[in-house]
């Protein structure tokens, strides 16, 4: 049964960099990939259980109150924004190619929830999870022309706390969000963070362009859809191992965890659409981090949007057998690697984005799916001084036909994968009763 209680906002505050941004940094150029990213927030919620007697922060060997924690979070967030100064700025218009680094600040919300964390963990409710992120939603124009970063700290009845972070996709991808959280959490635990400094410069590699070439950035097309439902599926490590063996073939002798899970989720969704609609083609767009693929590789703290789209197509007269799908996923990734330039070719990237944009306009001919894997990103290591999170989720990152994956919160890493799948109502009802999927994944089980 869903929890009916609502999160209550205590106060909203604007957090600005602790030092003014220097004049020579007052404007920040967006890259081509930043421009083509949608007006949406990339969310993450980190859940921290109640303090224990071992909680230590700056030598304070006692239980910290919620007020003490939020005060320290705000102070260190202000310091962290000195390095991540574009996040405290504003993009003046939808088609602008710069951020005005005017120190207008980010929004920090303090809230409380009259419910224990353990009760919420029993059957997580996506609608409730959204309340832990303030006003940020999957599609929000403010992500393009308002606050670029939103933070909400929510106190649970049991004394636990959730920290919800929503960052505009115009300035960051998942890797950049991780770099920011690492830096902020280190500021919380030590006086100065000398380790995680962002490297800005994506616009020098991929300069911005005139966005009037396309009525909407291409990814924005996937945000459309009415009456969508998000369901959470959890694959335990032992089930993934069985799935990997089942989906192996002569072409792909050992599928990765993500390949095997992606194939089964995509198959389940396509099978549902084949019953409910007459679309001729299915297209899966996967986000791929390009930092390690350039020559030389870009550092992991290179900030901005540095991902490419790996597309895999299936006609409705083709087999949706798992071995076939995994082979297609692997082939499209290998083709992507083969043709990925050793040096970023601006003209080639621009042509690819324009072509993708024009192709995606023909949405009456095919069904488009978007897939992003956050597996192996160490979000479970984010420690603000009172321990590591019991659960990390980006489940509110939901748009039509989206497949979002994260690691499960097992003590040893475990190898499990949590999937948040968003489909329209009719298709989701079919997926939730798909016995092949339910043989490997549990539908919205308890977090712990």
Secondary-structure arrangement, i.e. CATH architecture of the largest domain: 2-Layer Sandwich
Q: Could you state the CATH homologous superfamily of the largest domain? A: Chloramphenicol acetyltransferase-like domain
Total number of domains: 2
Report the portion of residues in β strands.
Answer: 15-25%
Using DSSP, what is the number of strands?
A: 15
Distance linking N and C termini: 17 Å
What general form does the structure show? globular
Biggest sheet, open or closed, and with what strands and sense?
Answer: 7 strands, mixed
Give the structural class.
Answer: alpha+beta
CATH topology of the largest domain: Chloramphenicol Acetyltransferase
Task: Please write the string of helix (H) and strand (E) elements.
Answer: EEHEHEEHHHEEHHEHHEEHHEEEEHHE
What is the percent of helical residues?
25-40%
User: What CATH first level of the largest domain would be assigned?
Assistant: Alpha Beta
> If you average the pLDDT, what whole number results?
87
InterPro entries: CAT-like_dom_sf (IPR023213)
Keywords: Acyltransferase, Transferase
Family: Belongs to the plant acyltransferase family.
Pfam families: Transferase (PF02458)
Task: Summarize the structure in short.
Keywords: Acyltransferase, Transferase. This protein has 448 residues and is α+β, with helices and mostly antiparallel strands. The chain has helices spanning 32-36, 66-80, 117-122, 126-131, 142-145, 174-189, 202-205, 237-246, 257-276, 322-339, 346-360, 425-432, 435-438; strands spanning 8-15, 27-29, 41-48, 98-100, 106-113, 149-156, 161-168, 228-235, 281-289, 307-315, 366-373, 391-393, 402-407, 417-424, 441-443.
């Amino acid at each position: 049964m869903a929890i009916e209680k609502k999160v209550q906002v205590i106060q909203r505050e604007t957090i600005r960099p602790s030092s003014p941004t220097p004049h020579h940094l007052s404007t920040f150029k967006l890259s081509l990939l930043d421009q083509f990213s949608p007006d949406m927030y990339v969310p993450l919620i980190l859940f921290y259980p109640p303090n224990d007697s071992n909680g230590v922060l700056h030598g304070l060997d006692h239980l910290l109150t919620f007020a003490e924690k939020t005060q320290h979070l705000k102070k260190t967030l202000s310091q962290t924004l000195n390095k991540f100064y574009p996040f405290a700025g504003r993009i003046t218009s939808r088609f602008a190619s710069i951020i005005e680094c005017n120190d207008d600040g980010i929004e920090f919300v303090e809230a409380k929830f009259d419910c224990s964390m353990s009760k919420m963990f029993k059957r997580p409710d996506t609608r409730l999870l959204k309340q832990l992120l303030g006003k940020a939603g999957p599609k929000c124009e403010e992500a393009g022309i308002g606050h670029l970063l939103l933070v909400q700290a929510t106190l649970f009845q049991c004394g636990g706390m959730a920290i919800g972070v929503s960052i505009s996709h115009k300035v960051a991808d998942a890797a950049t969000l991780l770099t920011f959280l690492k830096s902020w959490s280190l500021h919380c635990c030590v006086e100065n963070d000398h380790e995680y400094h962002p490297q800005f410069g994506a616009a020098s590699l991929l300069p911005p362009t005139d966005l009037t070439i396309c009525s909407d950035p291409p990814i924005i097309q996937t945000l459309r859809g009415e009456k969508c439902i998000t369901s959470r599926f959890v694959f335990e490590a032992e089930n993934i191992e069985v799935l990997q063996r089942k989906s192996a073939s002569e072409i792909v002798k050992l599928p990765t965890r993500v390949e095997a899970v992606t194939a089964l989720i995509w198959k389940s969704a396509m099978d549902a659409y084949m019953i409910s609609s007459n679309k001729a083609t299915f297209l899966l767009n996967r986000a791929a981090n390009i930092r390690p693929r350039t020559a030389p590789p870009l550092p992991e703290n290179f900030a901005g949007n540095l991902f490419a789209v790996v597309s895999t197509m299936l006609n409705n007269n083709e087999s949706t057998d798992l071995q076939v799908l995994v082979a297609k996923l692997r082939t499209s990734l290998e083709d992507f690697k083969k043709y990925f330039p050793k040096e970023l070719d601006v003209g080639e990237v621009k042509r690819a984005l324009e072509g993708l944009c024009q192709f995606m306009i023909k949405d009456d001919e095919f069904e488009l799916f978007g897939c992003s894997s956050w597996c192996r990103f160490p979000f479970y290591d984010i420690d603000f001084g009172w321990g590591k999170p019991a659960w990390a989720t980006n489940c509110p990152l939901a748009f039509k036909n989206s497949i979002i994956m994260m690691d499960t919160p097992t003590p040893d890493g475990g190898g499990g994968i949590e999937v948040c799948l968003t489909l329209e109502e009719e298709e989701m009802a079919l997926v939730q009763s798909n016995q092949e999927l339910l043989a490997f994944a549990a539908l919205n089980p308890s977090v712990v």
